[in-house]
């Protein structure tokens, strides 16, 4: 587990987990200290004292974010401990199991070719240790019963650590997936739903309304002369205005209404179970809340921001695209008639006339 660019980028929880593993190392080696004293294997008892010191050092190094030093200490401890115990009391003591833990750890912390190279070295070391213990008798043999007990204990600890690693990675993947889902569905600036997500949810809502024979209404809201706000007060102020507008719109709507950022300075709202006259009054409430809000500026006066809104009501078997097209046409009228106003499109003849007018003027 040598530190590289990639290991630095690992999640802090990974280092937290490694730090907790140091505590397990301290606990396990303290138990071993007692066991080896009891078995009169004094060299190994002293090795355990050194191991406890190394894990304590690694624990403290993780606390100071010296992750490379800490992982180096753990690696050295495990490799030396496994080698010494195997040579002194034999392969059957099961201390070599701990070396296996490094294979997934290397795969995670190192880059592809480095990880592969490190795994090959680790594997050669493992096989080398096995062959040595096969060819030579243990230097300080202990009883078969003691060997069996140690083997079971070591196997249990290693299996538990593999289990923890598994849980950690499953949790990490879940958290990453949740983040990806949020990134894919939320607009970063305003934290509203992005266009893709609000479209998907609005389509589902429209289908639900259709099944229940209810109407829904759509609104398109566009900030008036937003280019001028950017030009006069700066892009950053423009961003702040958009963020705050998103908050006002959300605050003024009901919980089950859908609101998303439709484009640069344009928002889309879908109001389930809402007919045109109710939608119009909601739109008017929004317009007036925004028009009455004063933004502080660094030019010694407050900034006033207004929005124009177009509203449309769903018709049987209508697609979302069609519903929004009508709201867009209504928005065009609001802009054309002087801005800071709400327009609803009700009758179809007016709509088709307008559609022609819009296409002529675009
Ligand atoms: N600050 C900021 N500006 C943006 C963002 N997205 C789009 N804009 C700007 O919004 C402006 C929109 O300008 P126009 O389409 O001309 O519309 P307008 O100035 O609002 O005029 P009307 O809509 O006709 O009232 C452009 O200058 C874009 O650069 C954004 O995320 N942040």
Automatic annotation (TrEMBL):
**Origin: domain of life:** Bacteria
Give TM segment ranges: 21-39, 45-62, 69-89, 117-136, 148-170
Q: Mind listing the UniProt keywords for this protein, alphabetically?
A: Membrane, Transmembrane, Transmembrane helix
**Cofactor(s) in the UniProt record:** Mg(2+)
Question: Which Gene3D superfamilies does the entry mention?
Answer: 3.30.70.270
The chemistry this enzyme catalyses reads: 2 GTP = 3',3'-c-di-GMP + 2 diphosphate
Instruction: Select a single GO molecular function from the record's annotations and give it.
Output: diguanylate cyclase activity
Q: Which PROSITE patterns match?
A: GGDEF
- Keyword Nucleotide-binding belongs to the record: no
Q: InterPro entries from the xrefs?
A: Diguanylate_Cyclase, GGDEF_dom, Nucleotide_cyclase, Rev_trsase/Diguanyl_cyclase
Q: Which stretches make up the GGDEF domain?
A: 214-347
Identify the EC number(s): 2.7.7.65
NCBIfam families (UniProt xref): GGDEF (TIGR00254)
Name this polypeptide is given = diguanylate cyclase
């Amino acid at each position: 587990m040598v530190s590289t660019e990639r290991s630095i980028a690992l999640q802090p929880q990974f280092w937290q987990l490694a730090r907790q593993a140091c505590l397990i190392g301290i606990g396990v080696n303290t138990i071993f200290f007692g066991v080896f004293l009891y078995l009169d294997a004094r060299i190994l008892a002293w090795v355990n004292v050194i191991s406890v010191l190394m894990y304590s050092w690694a624990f403290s190094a993780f606390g100071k974010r010296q992750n490379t030093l800490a992982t180096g200490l753990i690696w050295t401890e495990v490799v030396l401990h496994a080698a010494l115990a195997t040579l002194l009391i034999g392969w059957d003591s099961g201390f070599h199991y701990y070396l296996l833990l490094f294979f997934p750890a290397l795969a995670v912390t190192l880059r592809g070719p480095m990880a592969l190279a490190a795994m090959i070295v680790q594997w050669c070391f493992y096989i080398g240790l096995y062959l040595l213990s096969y060819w030579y008798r243990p230097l300080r043999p202990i009883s078969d019963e003691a060997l069996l007990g140690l083997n079971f204990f070591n196997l249990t600890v290693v299996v538990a650590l593999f289990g923890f690693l598994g849980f950690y990675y499953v949790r990490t993947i879940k958290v990453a997936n949740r983040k990806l889902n949020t990134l894919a569905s939320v607009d970063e600036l305003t934290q509203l739903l992005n266009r893709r997500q609000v479209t998907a949810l609005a389509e589902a809502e429209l289908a639900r309304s259709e099944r229940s024979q209810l109407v829904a209404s759509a609104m398109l809201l566009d900030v008036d002369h937003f280019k001028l706000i950017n030009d006069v007060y700066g892009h950053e102020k423009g961003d702040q205005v958009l963020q705050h507008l998103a908050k006002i719109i959300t605050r003024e709507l009901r919980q089950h209404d859908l609101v998303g950022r439709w484009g640069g300075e344009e928002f889309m709202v879908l109001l389930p179970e809402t007919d045109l006259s109710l939608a119009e009054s909601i739109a008017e409430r929004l317009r007036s809340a925004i028009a009455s809000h004063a933004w502080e500026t660094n030019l010694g006066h407050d900034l006033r921001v207004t929005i124009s809104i177009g509203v449309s009501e769903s018709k049987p078997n209508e697609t979302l695209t069609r519903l929004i097209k009508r709201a867009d046409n209504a928005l065009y009228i609001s802009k054309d008639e002087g801005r800071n106003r709400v327009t609803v499109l009700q009758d179809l003849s007016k709509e088709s006339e307008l559609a022609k007018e819009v296409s002529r003027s675009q």
